[in-house]
């Protein structure tokens, strides 16, 4: 056996430093770590930019039960139940509950046959959802979660899509209808993915109420024109 040390290994890249001490865990770096901490940003939220909710039913929008699922499509957030008890029923026409806590009513909507005004409730607080003009396809309300700021849902383009804007005309949420899908009714995109709690409840309830308003308008237009279709005109 040879007692001579083996020749130095030739590295294709600079060899590792042999005498530099390892800063962790025995000797934590102080200067560089402090600098790194002072420069590192806060952790990004779960939804850094936007958040998309998906709306499904067993058959059509007129069905009694509708599910609103989170972005991954597998975690229900809300359940919408419709009351088809007639115009003189004392119950709200739409009731939105928490999917995790079915007894928690996050919002309701009550429609009127002779008026375009809708009565909304967010966690028991009533607000009026009213048209922005005589011939417009837009409804607005005073937002409890935004300190009374007036928010407005309006039609976008010539299809079935809707957009929610604030008083500065900045969009907050968008509803894209899944016109040709069998069970999916559409998706609701929230511009700021950090919106949660009652503010999110408010967007969902008011958005679903606006979608129902548009569905009723199209059905009424089709019936007036003597057509069997439910497509109607654009926004």
What is the gist of this entry?
The chain contains 2 helices and 12 strands. With 235 residues, the chain is an alpha+beta fold.
Report on this structure:
With 235 residues, the chain is α+β, with helices and mostly antiparallel strands. The chain has helices at 31-39, 197-225, and strands at 51-57, 65-69, 76-82, 94-98, 105-112, 115-122, 125-131, 138-143, 149-155, 162-165, 171-177, 184-190. The protein has a twelve-stranded antiparallel β-barrel with strand order 1-2-3-4-5-6-7-8-9-10-11-12. A hairpin with a 6-residue loop joins strand 11 (171-177) and strand 12. The model is unreliable at 9-47 and 227-233 (pLDDT under 50).
How widely separated are the two ends?
Answer: 90 Å
Question: How confident overall, as mean pLDDT?
Answer: 78
Largest sheet: 12 strands, antiparallel, barrel
Give the strand content: 25-35%
Structural class determined from secondary elements: alpha+beta
Shape: globular
Strand order of the largest sheet: 1-2-3-4-5-6-7-8-9-10-11-12
Helix-strand pattern: HEEEEEEEEEEEEH
Gyration radius, rounded: 28 Å
The percentage helix is 10-25%
Number of strands: 12
Tally of separate helices: 2
Spans of at least 5 consecutive residues whose pLDDT stays below 50 are 9-47, 227-233
